[in-house]
Design brief:
The chain is mostly helical and 64 residues long. It has a domain of 39 residues. Helix content is 31%, strand content 0%. It contains 3 helices and no strands. The longest helix has 11 residues. The radius of gyration is 18 Å and the shape is elongated.
């Protein structure tokens, strides 16, 4: 039982890497050609199609 509690505490402290279902959801990829129109519109994976408008803004309130 102690081992189970200890394992849960250790795993709770682990920082999982960021995971995005589609590559174009990651702001780091928004400048890639396959994340820009018209290429991404074919597969409907453009950032503006995958994210809410408030997620598309930077911390300063400007569009990314």
């Amino acid at each position: 039982m102690r081992v189970l509690i200890l394992a849960c505490l250790v795993l709770a402290g682990c920082d999982a890497p960021e995971y995005f279902r589609y590559p174009c959801m990651n702001p780091k990829n928004w400048e890639r050609e396959d994340c820009k129109r018209p290429v991404c519109a074919i597969t409907q994976e453009c950032p503006d199609q995958l994210l809410k408008p408030e997620d598309m803004k930077s911390e300063k309130g400007e569009p990314r």
